[in-house]
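When time allows, look over one protein, given below as sequence and tokens. The question is which stretches look regular and which look disordered:
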Amino acid sequence: MSLSDQGRSLAFTLVGASTALPAVNGGTATYSGVLPSTDLSYVSQSSGVEEVATLEDTQAPSELSYQLSGSTGLEPRQQPDGSIAMVDQQGATWFTIPAPVAFPRAAGAGAGRALPMSVSASGSGWLLSVDTGEAWVREALTVGPVVVDPTVKVHGWASCELAEESPKTSHCSGIMQVGYDATHQEHHALVEFLLSSIPSAAVILHATLGLDLASHSTSNAKAVGVYRVTKPWTNSATWETYDGTHAWSTPGGDYANPSENSDASVNPSVGTADGWYYWYVTKMVQEWANGPNAPANEGYEKGRPYRQGCNRQPDPQSPGIRLDKHVRTRKPLPGNSLRAFVVRAASRSTRCFRRR
């Protein structure tokens, strides 16, 4: 399997897999019996490729190994949250392999738990190893199949939670929490998109940011706003730092103050029920598309309600952005990269958004 983005590529192959023709259903290709008691499925997604390995019983291997090869200049870098970023020589991330998750098939993805993953040099590439020999996995296999979900994402969008209670820890996988915890510690979230497909002369007529609410601490409607991030960040971002090392100007992320910028967007009624909520971000997106004379295109941050606690397991519902645009004759607009929102809430309640 190979992924590419703007001339960069990443290929990965399951070591020892038998050659077989897949059964294709929509965007899913399934290979049966590629390893002992193991089936493999690939699911095409807008943000990358989700690979699902189904271990049928205790005869399944205790380790899944993948041979990785990337474009010249790309190399793997282990992240604090257990993920692996494929970065170039300037440190920019092009692909991300989140920490893999496993769960008994009968229990569903909500019962998922992270598995250890490591990467090492191998020939002209690297060997990625996922530990399926964990005691709880082997025990679960005595009862029924276990699903393992190692995913590769093109760095077209990314997200991180910034938690005041753990200011030096990166939370860039699983559910994104926005708000306060029981001791009034804040949580913000960062969401980033890459919109390189926008034509250079596009005029943005309408842009909508959508986030899928997984849980909430109160059914009362609460205001949640998205704001323009003013500093670049990576998937090692924490409450204190934008890349795991260098400090934000202000803990919790650097973003445009809504009293000073009219491009902020606030939804006043988030949390009456789980499901999708939307923010209208047309002005921000057009400013970014306009290029270097517009505000720095570093994204959105979202934030602030009261936290009762969120399940950090990954979920298949991705953040999304919808654009309506037309193209007119005008000088080319440089810089088609949309780089992140900060999301923050205006009241003491918890909102937990799905990120995958």
